[in-house]
Amino acid sequence: MAKGLDIDHLAKLARLNLTADEKVLYSNQLTQVLTYFETLAKADLPAVSDVAMVVSEKALRSDEPGMSLGSDAVTKIAPASHDGQISVPRVVDDES
Amino acid sequence: MAEEIYQLSATEISSRLAAGKLTSRAVVEALIARYHQLNKKIGAFTSLDEKDVLAQADASDARRKTGKVLSPLDGIPVAIKENIAVKGQPLTCSSKMLANLVSPYDAHVVEALKSAGAIIYGRLNMDEFAMGSSTENSAIQKTFNPWDLARIPGGSSGGSAASLASGLVPLALGSDTGGSIRQPASHCGIVGMKPTYGLVSRFGLVAFASSLDQIGPMARTVADCELLLKVLATPDARDMTCFDSTQRSQLPVATEKSLRIGIPKGVLGKGVGAEVAAATQAAIDFYKSKGATIIEVDLPSSELAVPTYYVVATAEASSNLARYDGVRYGHRSSNAKTPIEMMTNSRSEGFGPEVKRRILLGTFVLSAGYADAYYVRALRARSKIRAEHLAALEKVDMILSPTVPTPAFKVGEKVSDPLQLYLEDIFTIPANLAGLPALSVPCGKSGHLPVGFHLVGAPLSESKLFAAAQLFESAHSFANQQPTL
Amino acid sequence: MSNEWEIVIGLEVHVQLHTRSKVFASSSWGFGKEPNEQVDPVVLGLPGTLPVVNREAVEKAILFGLVVDAEIPEQCAWDRKNYFYPDNPKNYQLTQKDFPVTMGGKVEIELPGAARNIMGEHKWIRIHHAHLEEDVGKLSHSGSGSLVDYNRAGVPLLEIVTEPDLRSSAEAAAFLNALVVKLTQAGVADCDMEKGQLRCDANVSVRRMGDIQLGTRTETKNLNSISGVRDCIIYESKRQIAQIEAGNKITQETRGWNAEMSRGYVLRDKEDAHDYRYFPDPDIPTLKISRETVNRLQKLVPEAPFDRQRRYIEKLNLPYTAASVLIADKALADWFETAVAAHPTNAAGIANWAANDLLRELSAQSGAEIGSDETPAVKISLDSCLIKPAQLAGLVKLTDEGVISKQQAKEVFTEMFKTGKDALAIVEAKGLRQNSDTGELEKIVAEVIADPAVAKSIAEYRAGNEKAINALKGPIMKRTQGKANPVMIDQLLRKLLG
What we know:
The complex is a heterotrimer of chains A (96), B (485) and C (498). Chain A is an alpha+beta fold and 96 residues long. Chain A has helices at 7-13, 20-36, 38-42, 71-77; strands at residues 54-55, 81-82, 85-89. Chain A has a two-stranded antiparallel sheet. Helices cover 38% and strands 13% of the residues of chain B. Chain B is built from 15 helices and eleven strands. In chain B, helix 9 (305-320) crosses helix 12. Chain B is globular. Chain C folds into three domains: 5-297, no CATH class; 305-430, no CATH class; 438-497, Orthogonal Bundle (Arc Repressor Mutant, subunit A), CATH 1.10.10.410. In chain C, strands 1, 5, 6, 7, 10, 11, 12, 13 and 14 form a nine-stranded mixed beta sheet that branches. In chain C, helix 8 (330-342) crosses helix 9 (347-366). The two termini of chain C are 57 Å apart. Chains A and B meet through helix 1, helix 2, helix 3, helix 4 and strand 3 of A and helix 9, helix 10, helix 11, helix 12 and helix 13 of B.
């Protein structure tokens, strides 16, 4: 396994369930890919990245309220809803 | 007419509509007939609302009768890749995750096409969430290369390329993050362009890698491709990365004699198939014969392009795809006890293996302790790649290479080797990393399989690229070719 | 609290900015709408949607920076904070980690004085930075499930982070009061805490007095009232001190506050690994902030409230209490200064009316309560006040000139508030001019003194009981239909009684 590649930890961060077989498969595949990325580690690179686009205030939006979807449209797309709100399983109480 | 309607280019259809020799309805009826005949075999379209497209055709014909033609594209069908939002139509991105999603809004490009009177014609298959180079990652159906039905059409815009090569539609939209328009265009013998980053609005394009994605035109001729791009490339305040009206001036076109073409050192060497190399060399020789200057350019950072791309693209994708959790729309898993469990199950059920693989990789390169070694370094590498290309493009008008090292491979051939697949993109990726316009043009065959050559230009040099491509196309007979099906 | 311990507090204040549309989406927002009515495709995070930054939100953030003397950088940028939660539509929050919209700054606070009418100590609290981000939706619980309303998702939030300069719950409360006054007076935010427009996270640590090292701190999140912040700091500092004195270490943790039971508790982790994987948002380019915009907004910065207070006390000779009340409401202070312009010789007199009677009447009219810690800036509306500043000045002038007594002025004021008529017109209409005719009054005073009914009181007065003299004033007033000049009556009585 590539240095530092903790597939369980990554799956948790990414909210993915992996079967035991998938864990092995993905670990191996990711390791292979990361090894290929070694060229990046060794390369001579400029100190800073300057790829970010820069815009002036012209690109900002004026504060005019636009159209809303309406709660009917929102609940229509939602997998489950109740009285205009989207339902989900019970959030575990924060209070310990 | 000697040719069938399905064989006509969009430009030809447009002039016949204008001359009253053809109606939009006749065009659409012919294409629907071909769709019924071939789509099961090719698998290009995931859906087509026949009633709707006929109604659009009738509306166009009615406009023409009253002299209210909206544009040269009025009445011409344009098929749309299924990661571009069309109001009232599925937006599945060929994923189980969004199998039930109907978009409540139109993408900017779709609004632009509608304003031009074009017919929004069906939904096209793709690799799931645009992740892949073969369209084998679609969760909906398979798409096959019209030139060899045992082979892949390329990806992720495989449905778009296949629909054009099989005469199912004259124009199509694709999206390109690392080559997803150009590579399938090359594999299917059609023309595909990825515009300068920022030229075409991404509003309504389901994001894969935000700093790399672009929507682009695909067609069977250079002129058609250019015609379609003109309609798509308009300002849009809903996308902050899209150029405003003052930032769109195109670079001037180069004449044949003043054209300078850069060839990257060793580009036809290791890894490139012999026939691909020969076809590309023939294109170079053609330009030379027309008076162009051929200059060798050195782009040493190109070896960093694939790792840089996969770090940046998967990092952005891991974040862009976080919203798919079954809460607000899309697939929701049943029987979960907590929201976290529900989100995790929905995502695990909804995403295919390539998507999961890239999300995991992207999560890793952004994670604490590794972001500096991978993500931050990749951004710096990207700077270097862009700087090298811009420097080279001061000395030449465009850089030429093959589009893909080898022609279309067999279905299933590379599925178990992700790294192999990633290397398909070696020539196309730098243009995405550098934000530069790039075009794939058919230039011959490798056996019976199409080969394309690849042109990359400086920002806003689309006209220059189209002119050079037109020069090549007019002197050869690779344009508007379809296999017999 | 014992002197051997020092409490160190830093606050992160989340303020909903005063805009009409959301910060990255154009749907409207505001309290009290039906669920999911203020949601558009961008807010919902539908596939293919993109953020566009709201100019007004940026300008309000810059204005805040100018109000607290912060530095406004040449550029700012937005980052993604990645974590999964049902109230987070994209499962990442757009925020500013490395290049926020304002850097530095300071806020002057005033601590309670020894008594209500004595000004307390002033102190400066430094601001580390403020950044512009989006709010999340609202989760509520119902039976066996939970419900999500995304109306609040995407609302512009300015997160203001202080340096750990606060040293007590009183300082924290004073800081929040001062901040709210500044934010509301500049029009940056409405800060209505009942509507959730201002929430606070409190970072608290303790250390032995004299220690240079900071102790381990805990963070209590989502405090939504100033008394909550105050109580939480007292609770948490006590808890930490008790822990250390018992030989235990303080765990760095995130906590919640139960306001009903006045106690804190450890929050179960929302995101186990707390690895937010921040990276620059690729959909929002870096924003250049022009100096023209900064200069234009600089002109909108109002006079700092405590500068105004100092000016009132030193230049206008107002007592501290009146000055302090006036500066809390910019409209009222502006109104007051207009009145003073019409009658500059008795600013203190005008202030007395404005800070007490006028404020009381306006508050009663709007239904708000004065003097509550929860609403430091009393919400009154001067727009519908029938009394104009010059008219109040006129009333004060009449009492200064002795035309009416202070007692009578109260009656006139009540009428002015109801009708908006001029003071003089009311005085004439009611025949309220007080009687200051010395000759006539002396005659009446002498008559009353001669009445045997008051002989006892006179005797008591002469024996040294000052208050006994008041017993004679009633009959005098009666004989003058209440119009006798009370000052004059008092003087005449003392003169005639010896």
